[in-house]
Amino acid sequence: MAELAFQPLPAWHRAVIKVGSNLLAADGGGLTPVYARALAAFIGDSQAQGREVVLVSSGAVAAGRALLRERAVPAGDLAERQALAALGQAPMIALWQSLSTRAVAQVLLTHDDLRNRRRYLNARATLRQLLAIEVLPVINENDTVAVDELKLGDNDNLAAIVAALVDADLLLIASDIDALYRADPRRDPDVAPIPHVAEITPEVMAMAGGSGSVVGTGGMRTKLQAAQKAAAAGIATALFNGRDAETVRALGEERLRGTLFTPGQSRMQARKYWLLHAPGGNASIRIDAGAANALAGGRASLLPGGVVEATGDFHRGDLVDVVDPDGRVVARGLCQYGAVDVRRLAGRHSRDIDGVLGYSYGPAIVHRDDLARVSS
Hints:
Layout: E1 7-8, E2 14-19, H1 21-24, H2 36-48, E3 52-57, H3 60-67, H4 78-99, E4 104-109, H5 111-115, H6 117-132, E5 136-141, H7 155-165, E6 170-175, E7 180-181, E8 193-194, E9 196-197, H8 202-205, H9 220-232, E10 236-241, H10 245-251, E11 255-256, E12 258-261, H11 270-277, E13 284-287, H12 289-296, E14 307-311, E15 319-323, E16 329-334, H13 339-345, H14 353-357, E17 371-373
Parallel strand pairs: 2-3, 2-6, 3-5, 4-5, 6-10, 9-12, 13-15
Antiparallel strand pairs: 1-11, 7-8, 10-12, 13-14, 15-16, 16-17
Organism: Dyella thiooxydans
GO cellular component, one term: cytosol
Domain PUA: 283-366
């Protein structure tokens, strides 16, 4: 296998590091500090230098399964996975606390926490305060209450969303593989690693294989998706082998042996980024061709006159997809009115809002400041 050289790690003050189950689960299914110890040392050294770190950690399901090993509880359907996650959260947090020089705080996030603007902002304020009081936040998806169709699904993408949530400078993804390769290095030992990716193109995405771990939910594809989300927010992503002690130690010396994904654009305004990348629901507003053309200009609000219909049950302030006459999502935004009100206002003039509803939250269904266009 080709040798992977060290390269400079981008300068950073605040970073999110994601550690997957494949680095935390022992062969018997429980948790082990074998690889976590070096990662925790890197986090502690970084904090001692005045840097801020947020940890996104998997491992709860594996820990829960190990506690019930003699009962052979499967982890097949959602309820079983939720039960194992609930059981395993405590030992997973205990592992990190035992390795951390600072207090550890558990933060469990759900799809709705990242979709609802108010809860999203509350989560951001909480995480920023934890960092301000020099606590290590350990984040995981709240599997115990998530429903299957609304699960975030993997912690790679969750880590990218959290990186934007806390305005991180860098996303670090600790894996069980050295870097991104053009093919699976476990099947082709002569394949060369890719040290730098400036843009995640369809060709780059096609290099991703399946998950290499029986305990994790993500493979290389989810890591590329995470790097893509981070890049959209102007955040670089470093993928490295968390099982290699020398590689982890070099991070503290600002050297990376792995793949660096650099953003190709300046940081997107945080609000617009959230609108585009927060998990979506089933709510949508279909608009006519005239409204679609107006929104394409980039500075127009969605007014009642351009609305054809509203689909799904949503409330004022919820995130909705805006769909053109051909069924394509052309924008996402925070709706000023609930679904029932939008249906009543569809096709009407803005001046009629108060007369139709008996109240008004303004002339726009979705204000331009709360609207982000979806690139075609």
